Amino acid sequence: MLNPAVPLAFTAVVGIAGAALGQPLPDRQTEIIHRLKQDCGSCHGLTLKGGLGPSLLPAALDARPDEYLVHVILYGKPGTPMPPWSFEIAEDEAAWLVARLKQGIRDGQ
Amino acid sequence: MGNSNIRAALLALAVAGLAGCAPELRGTGDLGLVVERASGRVKVIETTGHTSLATVSGLGDLSHATAVFSRDERYAYVFGRDGGLTKVDLLQGRIAARVIQAGNSIGGAISQDGDLIAVSNYEPGGVRVFDAVTLQPVADIPARYGPDGARSKVVGLVDAPGKRFVFSLYDAGEIWVADFSVRAAPTIQKFPNIGRLPYDGLITPDGRYYIAGLFGEDGLALLDLWNPAAGVRRIVDGYGRGEQPLPVYKMPHLEGCASASGLLFIPAVGRHELLVVDSATWRETARIPLHGQPVFAVARPDGRQVWVNFAHPLNDAVQIIDVAALKVVKTLNPGKAILHLEFTPRGEQVWISARDDDRVDVYDTRSFERIASVPAEKPSGIFMTSRAGRLGS
């Protein structure tokens, strides 16, 4: 379950992402999408429709606040297999990834 | 069948054969499949000359795909993530039959007699069973649990002697045994409260014990199929000694970790360790420190070595454990993102998939030298036809 303190704590992150300050460079974008499909895909499926972990398709994420999703990517979800990725994904990169996931990741990207 | 019919059948086989212009009869004992996970394809490989014989396309989403083989080792049944169940003709290098049987799947098994294929599904949660010849549906087993009848994801599906399938309910924390000895009237025995979040299961090579690994609990659930009335019991309980486990970037697998010598080499969840468990006592007899979190720990067919690969981000290495010494004797760096490894039937070679290097390498298991390399696009699982003769695979 989401810690109710989390959205408040991460308002700042969303502010930065919203200002598009943290757009990763094109090579890094490709790298992050590769990681998403290959490594996140271990649990969420190569096409992100879910597996042991939930679906990451837009329909499944739309209702979730960006800051919550950024927090889950960076710090994981205790009590579930979702691990923290902050060791290799920066906050602004996670915010960019959340925005991309909500748009839908097409094949070829 | 008359002589002319036999000749016609042989001719048809040869014409459609893998070599194309050079008709040639061949066996399938040295064949295998390599899954190209991102492209929906499998490669048919042979381990005598280390070549790829055919590429079969159109198998859908093959992330986390696995395969089992018909008892004559001619056909592979490939289980895709998207619910696809595909029967591949290894000799003709083509799809023989295919059904989309669910929305989201994780693996499957073939019954002891080769008559039935069972698939474990995440969506809708349960097991579906098909005729191995036609892929026509035979049975549907919804994995319902709890007062509201919610459906659980199913993992760790294996076959067991007596035309049974054994599997674990991830969300429910249960083990079920489905008995198909009377095909038209299967029966199901349920074992609840085995522990939280079983993530995979295995059956020992003799078909006696089913073991489910538990995520977030320091132990495993053991069911003795010779004495199911005794129920499920916990083994190697508390192996984490109360320490906080590391985050897990790839769920470990239990397949292949039981060796012929009666030892099991079990990946410790969230730890850079392999647990060595003696199947005579079900106690931990050793603990082997490793390079990273183990994903597969696969015993060589003779049981003398165990080869281990690792979870992201330390997944560029393979370590080899000498079972006599119970320690790591060699560390290889075969490539980027080592996803799977599979031995040839007698274990003189091991095939290793390097996903991000787009190739499968072949190693000599005595010298640890690389002896061949086969290009493959984002390869993941490797499956040799010799699995046809083994329970639980």
Provide structural commentary.
- The complex is a heterodimer of chains A (109) and B (393).
- Chain A is mainly α and 109 residues long.
- Chain A has six helices and no strands.
- Mean pLDDT of chain A is 82; it is low at 1-20.
- By secondary structure, chain B is mainly β.
- Chain B has one helix and 33 strands.
- Chain B is globular.
- The interface between A and B is medium-sized, with 20 and 31 residues.
Question: Oligomer, anyone?
Answer: heterodimer
Question: What is the 3D shape of chain A?
Answer: globular
Mean pLDDT of chain A: 82
Give the N-terminus to C-terminus distance of chain A in angstroms. 32 Å
Calculate Rg of chain A over CA atoms.
Answer: 13 Å
Order of helices and strands of chain A: HHHHHH
Poorly predicted runs of chain B: none
Strand order within the widest beta sheet of chain B: 3-2-1-33
* Largest beta-sheet characterization of chain B: 4 strands, antiparallel
What is the number of beta strands of chain B?
33
Task: Summarize this structure as a short list of keywords or feature phrases.
heterodimer; A: 109 residues; mainly alpha; 6 helices; globular; disordered N terminus; B: 393 residues; mainly beta; four-stranded antiparallel sheet; 1 helix; 48% strand
Short account of what is shown:
The complex is a heterodimer of chains A (109) and B (393). Chain A is an all-alpha fold and 109 residues long.
How is the secondary structure organized here?
The complex is a heterodimer of chains A (109) and B (393).
Chain A: H1 6-9, H2 11-18, H3 26-44, H4 58-61, H5 66-75, H6 91-103
Helix pairs in contact in A: 2-6, 5-6
Chain B: H1 3-15, E1 31-36, E2 41-46, E3 51-56, E4 66-69, E5 75-79, E6 84-89, E7 94-100, E8 104-110, E9 116-123, E10 126-131, E11 137-142, E12 144-145, E13 150-151, E14 154-160, E15 164-169, E16 174-179, E17 187-191, E18 198-203, E19 209-214, E20 220-224, E21 232-235, E22 263-267, E23 273-278, E24 283-289, E25 294-299, E26 305-310, E27 318-322, E28 327-332, E29 338-343, E30 349-354, E31 359-364, E32 370-375, E33 379-384
Antiparallel strand pairs in B: 1-2, 1-33, 2-3, 4-5, 5-6, 6-7, 8-9, 9-10, 10-11, 12-13, 14-15, 15-16, 16-17, 18-19, 19-20, 20-21, 22-23, 23-24, 25-26, 26-27, 27-28, 29-30, 30-31, 31-32
